[in-house]
Amino acid sequence: MNRIHVRVADWQKDNAEIRRIRESVFIAEQAVPPELEWDAEDATAVHFLAYEGDFPIGTARLLPDGQIGRVSVLRDWRGLKVGDALLQAVIGEAEKRGLRQQMLSAQVQATAFYERHGFSIVSEEFLEAGIPHVDMVRGAA
């Protein structure tokens, strides 16, 4: 395991890397239709890239309303705290921007991960792109 670091990404400049990671995780692995993966909110979101050394291995985004999404880590780097580093960076940036509450829709199998970071389930289970999800919230309303 090399050094993991996370930085705020530029949607225009880092687009190919962000797309490579999300296409691998969501479209190839989880069979999310491309038309559901890519949306107009990417243009206004704050994007993040996680690196091992200088190789991008994970990504996430933060919307202006505090919604966190598209948290994804390439298969070979899962279980190595990359997701923790990504989520901590996103939460830190949200708080820096005055977004005291963060929300996300979590795949049901990932809820324990988000709960470790202070998120609580606030909805019943629902399907999104055919995958069971729940809504989760962290912080003050």
UniProtKB/TrEMBL annotation:
**CDD domains given in the database record:** NAT_SF
Q: What class of enzyme is it?
A: transferase
Protein keywords? Acyltransferase, Transferase
The N-acetyltransferase domain, residue ranges: 4-141
List, in alphabetical order, the Gene Ontology terms for molecular function in this entry. Answer: acyltransferase activity, transferring groups other than amino-acyl groups
* EC number of this enzyme: 2.3.1.-
Q: Which domain of life is it from?
A: Bacteria
- Protein name, UniProt field: GNAT family N-acetyltransferase
Q: Which organism is it from?
A: Pseudomonas vanderleydeniana
Question: Upper lineage ranks?
Answer: Bacteria, Pseudomonadati, Pseudomonadota, Gammaproteobacteria, Pseudomonadales
